[in-house]
Amino acid sequence: MEPVDLSKRLQLSFYQRDTQLVARELLGKLLVRRVGDELRVGRIVEVEAYLGPQDLAAHSSKGLTKRTRVLFGPAGHAYVYLVYGMYWCLNVVTEAEGSGTAVLLRALEPVRGIGARTQGPGLLCRALGIDGELNGQDLTSEELHQVDAPLADPALIVAKSRIGVEYAKEWARLPLRFYLAGNPYVSRS
DNA sequence: ACTTAGATGTGA
DNA sequence: CACATCTAAGTA
């Protein structure tokens, strides 16, 4: 097993910044999930930024509801929701409380303890055992957190339009999906 | 490449 | 009621 430094856990201040910046900087970082005494670790290779109530692709564009309560809450917490009745999606809440901004984690490169596919937001959650129970979870917690790690080559970051948001009019076209070019674990090229 | 099914919570 | 930050399986 290759050595991995899990000591530098990302703090709340990391998340309390511009959403697109957080999205870009999350590439290469490690997502750590603890299930019982088992650790599952993956390197983030694909994310999407959701920019708040004015962003028609963001759930916060529907306003503050029972579902979006966590999304409008403080940064550094997990916004987890069910999509298409079958798959869970994990987002990290960003910026100031009330901003309704978040970054969707779309794909991981397996690092340790991951035995299932992680290319795509639904598969990622299934592989890590993430469901609605973790909605609102503090992302600096033992159960679920992220760890700083160097990104070998920042020039590999590509920005394209987000997936599955065609209904969002002009917002659907903005380059808010970020991924590592050529990485085989990205959900689509 | 395109087509469709699958399951269910959410908001209108 | 229509649709959703998706995936798998089918046809070609």
Tell me what you see in this structure.
There is one protein chain. The protein is globular and about 45 Å long. The two termini are 28 Å apart. The protein has a single domain (12-180), classed as Methylpurine-DNA glycosylase (MPG) (3-methyladenine DNA Glycosylase, Chain A, Roll), CATH 3.10.300.10. It has 189 residues and is mainly beta. It is built from three helices and eight strands; from the N terminus they run H-H-E-E-E-E-E-H-E-E-E. It binds a DNA duplex (12 and 12 nucleotides) through residues 48, 50, 57-59, 62, 65-67, 81-87, 89, 91, 104, 106, 120-123, 162-165, 167, 187. InterPro entries: Formyl_transferase-like_C_sf, MPG, MPG_sf. It comes from Geomonas silvestris. Keywords: DNA damage, DNA repair, Hydrolase.
Quick structural summary:
This protein has 189 residues and is mainly beta. 11% of the residues lie in helices and 29% in strands.
What are the SSEs and their pairings?
Layout: H1 12-15, H2 19-26, E1 30-35, E2 38-50, E3 78-83, E4 87-93, E5 102-112, H3 121-128, E6 144-147, E7 157-160, E8 177-180
The structure holds a DNA duplex (12 and 12 nucleotides).
Q: What labels describe this entry?
A:
189 residues; mainly beta; 3-methyladenine DNA Glycosylase, Chain A; eight-stranded antiparallel β-sheet; 3 helices; DNA-binding; DNA repair; alkylbase DNA N-glycosylase activity; DNA binding; Putative 3-methyladenine DNA glycosylase; MPG
